[in-house]
Amino acid sequence: MNTVTNDPVAEFFAERAEQIRRYPDDAAWRELSNRWLHRAFEQRYMYNFTALGRPIIQTPVDMVAMQELIWSVRPDLIIETGIAHGGSLILSASMLALLDLCDAIESGKMLDPKVSRRLVLGVDIDIRAHNLAAIEKHPLASRIRMLQGSSIDARTIQQVRACAAEHTTVMVCLDSNHTHEHVLRELEAYAPLTSVGSYCVVFDTVVEDMPKAVFPDRPWGPGDNPKTAVRQYLQGHPEFEVDPGIEHKLMLSVAPEGYLRRVR
To answer: Does 116 reside within a domain?
Structure first.
């Protein structure tokens, strides 16, 4: 039932929430979304986009979801595993720059981006030279730090934890090797760094819902993927909960059950 108020913005959000609440009951739409994602993977649709000039291997839907989360959480550190061309790092850095700008406007004091505490920390086992050079030349490079090494290597984990210790509000995004074992070890290493109220986002959980033939040259597939790792991790970590509202409103996310909110 719609509630009439004197606040049109509140009415808008209430109506939207009611619409989203009904989405999971639409089995035909959910099946259509799954079929669309299946085809999108086959056609490499996720490779079609850029973030402020750098390629980003992501769907526009999840890109929008990430900017909403960053704006809401207002982190001063975003940890990302998996760098590729650097588009995700740039997208995150651009949001942190906007947060700094808004803080400056509200305080009346302009901030030097080179001394901002807000940082994106990217980890990748192989940061290719041409990608490294392009990221370092980007106008947002001062907000980005990169570590080359396996995300589950003890030395890498130690470096990331040391960086996290210097920040207050931390968000984590896992998007590297998608096998169950690797993602589970990433969760064990990095999810605890997530601040209460913030998110640990595990991408490509949708692999569990795709036919194995979609990933013929990859070591992951149904039964061995980020979603199976998330489900196992959550069994022993009640401090995290899946935020179903994000998945419900997106309908086309590559991260179903992957938006994990730290609740305590």
So the answer is: yes
Model-level pTM greater than 0.90?
Answer: yes
Q: At what angle are helices 60-73 and 87-107 packed, to 10 degrees?
A: 30
Length of the chain: 264
Q: What is the DSSP letter of 4?
A: P
- Crossing angle (nearest 10°) for helices 180-190 and 226-235: 50
For residue 2, is it within any domain? no
The CA–CA distances, whole Å, from 67 to 60, 95, 99, 190 equal 11, 7, 11, 21
Task: Give the CATH number of the domain where residue 151 resides.
Answer: 3.40.50.150
For the stretch 188-233, pLDDT in tens is 999 999 999 999 999 999 999 999 999 999 999 999 999 999 999 9
Domain with 95, as residue range(s), is 8-262
Find the helix or strand (DSSP H, E) in which 69 lies: helix 60-73
Where does the pLDDT of residue 242 fall: very low under 50, low under 70, confident under 90, or very high at 90 and above?
very high
pLDDT at 35: 96
Look-up: residue for tokens 């370092």?
Answer: 136
214 found inside a domain: yes
Question: What is the separation of C-alpha 145 from the centre of its chain, rounded to a whole number of angstroms?
Answer: 17
Per the structure, how many domains does the chain have? 1
In the three-class reduction of DSSP (H, G, I as helix; E, B as strand; rest coil), residue 141 is classed as: helix
Establish if 1 belongs to a structural domain.
no
